[in-house]
Amino acid sequence: MCPQDFARLRLVHSKKEIHGWWNGIEPHGNRECTSERLLINPYNGCSHDCFFCYAHAFPGYFDLFRKRGVITVFEDFDRVVAKQLDSIRVASCGYLSPVTDPFQPINERYQLTEKIMAAFVRRNIPVEVVTKGVISDKAMRLLAEQEHSFGQVSILTLDEDKRGRMMSGGASTEELIRNIERLSNRGIFAVCRIDPILPFITSQKEELEALVKAVVDAGASHVIASCLDIPKTMEHEIYEHIEHEFGKETRKKYEGLYVEEMSGRKHARIEYRRKLFKMVKEICDKKGVTMSLCMEFEQVRLQKGHESPSKFKFRGLNREFMTSRNCEGIDIPIYVRREEIFSPVEGCDGNCLRCYHLGKRRGREKERNKCGIEDLGKAGAWKLKDYKRWSKIVGGKSFIKPREGFEPSTC
Q1: How far apart (Å, rounded) are the C-alpha atoms in residues 166 and 245?
Q2: pLDDT of res. 363
Q3: CA distance 311 to 309
Q4: Rounded-to-integer distance, Cα 337 and Cα 376, Å
């Protein structure tokens, strides 16, 4: 890392809490994440700097990066996370990271990603990583050490020149493919995220076929796809970047395609997206790999007299295109701690969204909530306080911390 990179850091002590997804299925239907996750961003701001990244539209520390290029580091955040994990008896898989890359260059200095992963593994809680960077050897060993832990590698294109025109940093295409090989060689479930696909830039059938073939040959067991969406607050600068890198004609195509608005973002026409995802599904079927979509919806107008104050509701497209049981391709149960460390709930496949839909069907109630926590079957947007509340349900008068001296073998 260059010396000037250190000048663009801001160290802060944070009391922020681990939490679940930002949206629940109710009241608007805008949740497609089947399983619960504990979301963790050890850094705000990302030097990979993908030009289309929706995090650029976020306030606070994210805005600081957008305007001044400053990456905020949550110093000792691993200790904060460990303390929070010790305060609960119910846990879902840790997610590093939902917004900023856990293996961006600054992590080489602070290693917050590996330290937080170790906090999960030490307590026998699964953890996943999502990255456009190089997964460290320490992180690989930690993933291999804990059942249900896995890795997701985001690859936009096999064309290295295109990749460099869409982001400032990140690993090379060759290194990203190697990530998948390294995961697979260790017996770790490997996912490739083609997320997002950029219309007219990375959406050609031949290009997608070549990418899916390459990642499946490398050992990927599942593919996740999405179509680029554009935060309205970033619309102008995204179109400017597209024009600068890919020409005026491509910009005009985007302006004609991106006419649907949902939740403050512009989306490609639903007809285009359905055609795109049908093609991706056919490619994945041909290559013998499961696939799903990430946060792809159509907007449905509600009938008059409906109780909702909104005129619209969102309907997820995974019901048409997903070929796996869980949207990340792997079944990870809810974990509970009744003794020293956490253990998976028997019979739970982790699909809380399925539990929600079963709850709407008469006569299917007994198939729900193997974890015994009714709330999880509501597929909501959960906070740490909810996990603490559920902890009272699974029993025990006091919280037992991990046994003394028990450490993952790699940290």
Answers
A1: 8
A2: 63
A3: 7
A4: 17
